[in-house]
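Hello Y.,

Per our agreement to keep a running log of every chain we model this quarter, I'm adding this entry. I've kept the format consistent with earlier entries: sequence first, then predicted structure.
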Amino acid sequence: MFDYTFQWRSALRALPDMLAGAVVTFETAALSMIFGVLIALALTVMRESKNPLLRGIGVFQGS
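Predicted structure for the entry above:
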């Protein structure tokens, strides 16, 4: 019933492309985290600011 043989040769041929895709995925995730932290820090500073204009913009952080 289960008469399947895994095709190792095909999988190993595709390995370089899969590893390149994994690197792109890792870079995208790292950049997203960095930009997310920077945006969150900017909004937090705006929210805690004494300037009413900046504080008003920073209030939208929670919405």
